[in-house]
Amino acid sequence: MTQLMLHERHRQGGACFSSHGAWMLPNHYGDPSSEYRAVRENAGISDLSHQGMLLVSGEDRIPFLQNLVSNDVRLLTNDKGIYSTLLTAKAKMVADFHLYALPEAILVEMEGANAEVVSQYLSRFKFRSRIKITIPAWGKILISGPNGGKALQCFLGGTLPAEENALTRHSIEETTLFCVKRSMTGEEDYLLFVPEAALNRCWETVLKAGAGFGLVPIGHAALETLRIEAGRPYYGIDMDEEIKPIEAGIKASAVSDTKGCYPGQEVIARVETYGSVKKHLYGLVLEGAALPKKGDTILHDEKEAGWITSAAFSPFLNKVIAMGYVRVSVAVSDPNLTVGVNEARRSARVVPLPFYRRR
């Protein structure tokens, strides 16, 4: 896709280039608080094409991935995906992603932009496996909010995926699209995977079809607030190669206890057996109006108890909220903590995630 095309979609509501040529989501299109309300009350649309995708094809693709990822690839069906991680031998996360079975390949779809890192990591284990790893020329569009499904129905015309992480295939003007139902904001969210050649046209058509349902473009600032309220950790912000899935609270959905061997499996089993989780990702509600920064220290009785990973002002709670890692022994014994140092210090309280859940 050309830089001109991306700048044009930015003008209309879409992705753009940063100064070094990488794709990025605009911070906002107008007022982030209005964009937030649109998703909570009506519908929003975002171009997430800057995020990573891979295709793993070839006749050995199932056993190849089964030996490497933390979830059971055999659970994949033609209409239902799975969530998984790629771990080191010490069970630290290289990446998290969703897997979907397409007719001739498995789509490895990431919310971070580390497709090249994952491709290189997987390639180290190819050996004689009959597989091919490619980065597809596809874009990704998020349609979110209580009216998002109605807006998308006007565009697709067919049946939308009914269950979380379910996938449907659609043909629009001889272009094949894939639609996935997966909540990223705490609402009823859908993702469209679209060939790059049709991405601009798809964006414009969905935006027009959804106008009657209050569908508006949503930028990064509003999406971050929605994501944090929904308590969804993001790789590169709330998770990295120093964090295990069980510490990030994603073990139940991303790790199989029955699939057999994969890198990090012994460490995961040992932690499960002996309960040796020392830190965990928690929600925090903070006093005051200033947002803490990533890496700010969390204290308990003047001793370091953890650190902040992401924060936002929550319109839902009318409070500053954050996610961060806290020592489990502290979080379960006394939820009242402080964040920051010196004059920037303020009170915080540990709360369960998510902060927001649609009734």
Can you describe this structure in just a few lines?
This protein is of the alpha+beta class and 359 residues long. The chain is built from 11 helices and 19 strands. The longest helix is centred in the middle third of the chain and has 11 residues.
Q: What value does the average pLDDT take? A: 90
The largest sheet has its strands arranged as 10-11-12-9-3-13
Share of residues in helices: 10-25%
Cα(first) to Cα(last) distance is 40 Å
User: What series of H and E elements makes up the topology?
Assistant: HEEHEEHEEEHEEHEEEHEHHHHEEEEHEE
- Count of spatially separate domains: 3
Structural class: alpha+beta
Q: CATH architecture of the largest domain, please?
A: 2-Layer Sandwich
Describe this structure in words.
The chain is flat and about 65 Å long. The longest helix is centred in the middle third of the chain and has 11 residues, at 199-209. It is built from 11 helices and 19 strands. By secondary structure, the chain is an alpha+beta fold. The strands form 4 sheets. It has a 6-stranded mixed sheet with strand order 10-11-12-9-3-13, with helices on both faces. The chain is 25% helix and 31% strand. A hairpin with a 4-residue loop joins strand 16 (303-314) and strand 17. The two termini are 40 Å apart. It has 3 domains: 3-52 and 136-229, 2-Layer Sandwich (Gyrase A, domain 2); 53-134, Alpha-Beta Plaits; 278-359, Aminomethyltransferase beta-barrel domains (Elongation Factor Tu (Ef-tu), domain 3, Beta Barrel), CATH 2.40.30.
